[in-house]
Amino acid sequence: MNQALFIISLQHELSMLIGSQLDLSLVCKRFLKVCNHRMSLNSCHVILKNQNKLFLPNWHATRKDLIYSMPKRFEGAPWTESKLAMAQLDNILENHNRCEQAVISKQSQLGVLTSFRLKDLGYLILHTQVQVRDELVHSLLPITEKLANFCYSCCIQQQLVAEMQAREQAEHKIKHQATHDSLTNLYNREHISVLIQQIAKHAETNGTQSALIFTDLNNFKPINDTMGHAMGDQILIQVAYRLHRLKNNKIHIARFGGDEFIIVVSDLAQSVAEARSKTFNFIEQVQQLFSLPIRVQAKSYQISMSIGFCLFPYAAKTPADAITFADIAMYEAKRSKISAGIEYSPSMSEILATKAANVEIVKQALANNGFALFYQAQYHANKQLIGAEALIRWNHSSNENSQASEIIGIAEENNLILQIGDWVLDAACGHIAQLERRGLPTYFDAISINISPKQLITDNFFEKIQLLLKKHKIQNHHLKLEITENILIENFDQIVPVIKALKSLGVQTSIDDFGTGYSSLTYLKSLPVDELKIDRNFVVGIHNNPESQAIAQMIIALGNTLNMQVLAEGIEDEAELICLKALGCHLFQGYYFAKPAPFEHLAGSVLQPI
Ligand code: C2E
Ligand code: MG
Ligand code: MG
């Protein structure tokens, strides 16, 4: 073929190739293949410079120039890895003057490299052993121009595609985030509400019942507090992972917040009874998921859940009601420690409303001097008044007896007990100070104050007592703190150091309601407690009850052995008193001697034996 014809056909072939596709890599490779083949080159390359303003996804990732080579290898190694080839290319590109469109450079080792500028995008390099003729270089210039335009369009197009994909991904992510919980990837509370709405609507037409199951992990807070939130998060992720196993097109799972999860089981049955029974079966499956401990960072955590549920539309007409009701039932399950789950009933809401109202009453009483301390005198068998127990009462209330359990019960369910406990301690220490000023007889032992477990395990309890003793300037041994036996055993390790510290101050301690718990001798031996109070349950009708007698006898013997005084509480008649005296008990408290009464009444009685 003569030269002119060769050039025309080469131009034609190359220009047909350019733009035949919108795939940059494919077109460049085909272009180079034709160049290589038609011009008998050693190699040829399209180099697109990375510093170009255009963005290409793979450019961005590698931060290297894009190099298309034909053939791909040089002396056995890929072009991009051959040091010699790359050095030559770098050299020629460096020397390629910005104004020149084509440059021919002779290289000793590689032969001749002819570089064409692809505008400011990069270069087309032809590599031969012999110099490419000027004519050919000229004839390739318009083609190079076209190639440059094509590369530019491709870059723009790819950039647009990448932007679109990124936008789609971002939209997808936003959509996902709007409906999912970021920690566990379960549905979030907003989305589960939408689903419940949809399920409820569906139920209107098909008449089926669905269940909203509300779960809350038991004892998660202490783990979170002691092991750190990162560990807590890991546990929540694992819990979510296990719950996720239950998921199918009728079971939706969400994290409601904190350690609370919601499971909605739709279309259970048309009959409420059947839906209920299926829900209980399902809850069993949920609990089984946690039969094996969760392992996080080589530690095992035995997780359990409190579960409440409500059937809808049977019990709840709106998603918000369904959630609230199942939550109420969950609290009931937690309170009563029932693992099988509890179904919501309207009476639970009534109880809750009463509780909320009661909490308000207690708060008001705290703020407005609404409490009073009554004292129930304690006597020695020789009829001397040796002490008194402080018992909380509503101020200005006509019903003077048995109100303490009501107040304490309300306050124990939340942290109000701490404020009440502080008030009781302060008021009682104030009363001790008054008694001391009036002159207490030497046989008067102490004023006893009931201490709630929450108070005892607060960090600064001991310091609080020290401050109170100082504030009221009372003799430490006139203060006796009562701790119920059950609470003592449940929190033994935490409470023992507090009791020991109190002992070192001379403050006395007493184990209240003794005999109802399971204190063993081993427990008691290590406790420097001053007193055991025989619970009223064993005192009621003790003279007619050999079992109570045996227990009381055992407690008295225990006290004697461990050098603790023993007081029997709740004595209502003489027969009980005679029986207890015969068993060796010398200290008593009960309606038989005195009912709880205002402080002034105690103050008046302290100096006169009955
Ligand atoms: P507790 O410490 O065992 O107090 C004895 C309870 O038995 C008192 O009831 C008292 O009034 C009652 N009682 C005394 N003698 C007799 C009797 O002969 N017959 C009968 N049936 N009952 C008798 P109260 O005052 O209702 O207190 C109930 C519980 O409430 C107390 O049991 C104590 O655990 C708690 N409590 C009372 N005041 C406080 C307080 O200030 N702080 C704390 N944390 N708990 C308190
Ligand atoms: Mg008591
Ligand atoms: Mg008691």
Task: Give the name of the CATH architecture of the largest domain.
Answer: Alpha-Beta Barrel
Q: What is the rounded distance between the termini?
A: 140 Å
What is the number of beta strands? Answer: 23
Task: State the CATH topology of the largest domain.
Answer: TIM Barrel
Query: Which blocks of ≥5 consecutive residues have pLDDT under 50?
Result: none
The tally of domains stands at 3
The percent range for helix content is: 40-55%
Strand content: 15-25%
Structural class: alpha/beta
Quick one: CATH superfamily of the largest domain? Answer: EAL domain
Q: Class of the largest domain in CATH? A: Alpha Beta
How would a crystallographer describe the biggest sheet?
8 strands, mixed, barrel
Average pLDDT: 89
Bound molecules: ligand C2E, magnesium ion
Report the C-alpha radius of gyration, rounded: 43 Å
Helix tally equals 22
Spatial sequence of strands, sheet with the most strands? 15-16-17-18-19-20-21-22
